[in-house]
Amino acid sequence: MSDRADLLESLRAAVAEGRAPSPADLTRLALVTDPMVLRKAGKLLARLEDAEGLRPLRVAVLATCTIGSYEQILRASLVSAGVLPELAPGPYGMFELTLATDPFDGVDVITLLLDETAFLPHDWAATDVDGLAGHLEARLADLRGLVLSAVERCTATVLLHTVPLPAQVRDSVISWRARAALSKAWAKLNEGLLDLAAQHRQVAVTDLVSVLADSPHAARDDRLHRYGDLPYTDGALYLLAREVRRFAQVRAGLSRKVLALDLDNTLWGGVLGEVGAEGVQLGGLYPGNAYQEVQRTASRLRDQGVVLVLASKNDADLVDEALTAHPEVLLRPEAFSAKAVNWSPKAGNLREAASALGLGIGSFVFLDDSPFERGHVEEELPEVVVLAADGDPAHIVRTLLAQGWFDVAELTETDLARPELYRSRTLRNDFAGGFGSSEDYLHALQVRLVVEEADGFAVARVAQLAARTNQFNLTGLRFDEAETGRRIADPDHLVVTFAVADRFGDEGVIGAAWVDRSDAEWHVDNLVLSCRVLGRGVELAIAAWLARRAHAAGATALRGRYVPSKKNGLAKGFWTDAGFTGEGDGAYALALDSDTGLPGTPAWINLLEGNEVAR
Predict the structure, then answer these.
(1) Spatial distance between the Cα atoms of 187 and 209, rounded to a whole number of angstroms
(2) pLDDT digits (tens, 9 = 90+) for 104-125
């Protein structure tokens, strides 16, 4: 049985049993590039309902053309990201009316499928390119108004794309000068589409034109276009669906944080133990330049917040010498937040690295040239995305980047600082070994907790925490940027951020709470906290601050919930540890009758509010 047939059979079995496909099958599905396989997978997965482990996502699909196989390809692509999509295609021929009037209640993403007919007049004069350019500007303004109107009526994000200029339009203009003017006008149209992302937080744009330019898939089949108003081939629809999947992955908080890298024949050519540091292929001409580009790409990812882990079967001293002394190495030892250089199985090393960093193993991407090592990790750690670095090294960078495993909605200060934060964590763990008691260690850490009401500048980071935090996530409610922004502006709600620093560095904003304060009893709708700060009493200090803040405002009680999931068992005892009383069915309460009954801040934590830090 071929690998594709085996994947489809595994998906068929999962659907028949009413369960989510395995993590390994989701990764296999994400790596499929054959649109026909995705069409078949999408038809199978249409029968999957309420699969535990997949995050629900309601997606409206509005098109200026016939969508054809897009629904099946899109469904398969979205499931591969770990979401269970409910797709709602808009009525044919009613694109503008639907976008202008539909309330989109309960919709998470509105994805637009655009072709040139959204912008070109039915008939146009090849001798009047200036007039055509003016028409394109007017149609862009119409679409802009429709999109911005839609996001004002709902909490969904509108995802649209740039539009390729069809060859028959371009080549109908026989004057080279006029043809250049037409291309310029079309480029300006696409520039305007891309600019929509900067005009509203609920708008995102993918550059389909550049994606198509870098792929082997033709954008158009002329016969299908004329026969069924299908302006895009299945290959082009696959590329667009892949971009939508990348966006949905970000929105659902399912992007990866860690890149674990092998060394031999991955970050350099050759086996270090056989050829020595001077003999590895790195830099210069091919293939050394290909391996150096892998290192350069990994360095760029690190600069944007991806945590690098070194996972190599090698002699540790020899590796340190090569990383330090080789003049062409771009990833020096300090680039890695954790290193596992030994002769132990890599699956165990990755598991230990995840534990040391305080991250779930499901946040890892593993790049290795050895089929044996990849197979062992896939078998032992199916949650890890495993990528192949064997074959032609010129293709490794494309393999690493094509699926957008590390995408984020936008970079925050915490993202940029993350690699050093996790490197500090390993230093902190080493530091802990020199103390007689945990309390002595905690006092020596000099922990500082800064609490601050969120403002517009914090929306992106707070929404990111809601989407990506799983282990300490009390209720599972994932407030996106739109809802978080609304709550910040609403006096009946409180959105607050928590930042932590200690002697080893500033962790940045590591937690957030969404509180309903519309009546005499305050309700904590959700509280999320990065697991990298657990064990320092930060969560207890947060509970104490919330209780004091509610008491000072005259609230009679502070209430919260714990809704169990497969991943948040770590937070199960939070409310009782903080002094709250259980009321059954996951509900907890703390009476605020007097100051004496309020929980206290751990003695080793210096708790400050934002205005105190400013002073």
Answers:
(1) 10
(2) 999 999 999 999 999 999 899 9
